[in-house]
Here is the input.
Amino acid sequence: MYPRPLYTIFVSFQADIDSGKGPVWITINRSRPMESLRDKMLPGRKQKDFTPLSEEIKAKEGSIKHVIEEDGELSVCVRASPASSKNPMRFGLAVHTGKSKSELTKKRDEEHLS
Here is the structure.
């Protein structure tokens, strides 16, 4: 049996946060509609459990990396406790797929040695 491919998701962010006002979280999770569609198309196939990633944002800029084993739709959610209609907060998100430079270098080194 061949190993399953791994997919890497990078979420880069810029946030207008003030650390003294409360926590801000970014969560990456599988969208539920794809699961029901896949279950209809491939009955009997057991879905692998997907563990959502939640990370507290403490810096104004950064990125989050998450590795998944199955393709499909993902959702990226920002939860900001201090945000309200009187205290709006601004977030910028960019989502990329692929491998990081360190992963590509490691793969290239492994292929070179084999």
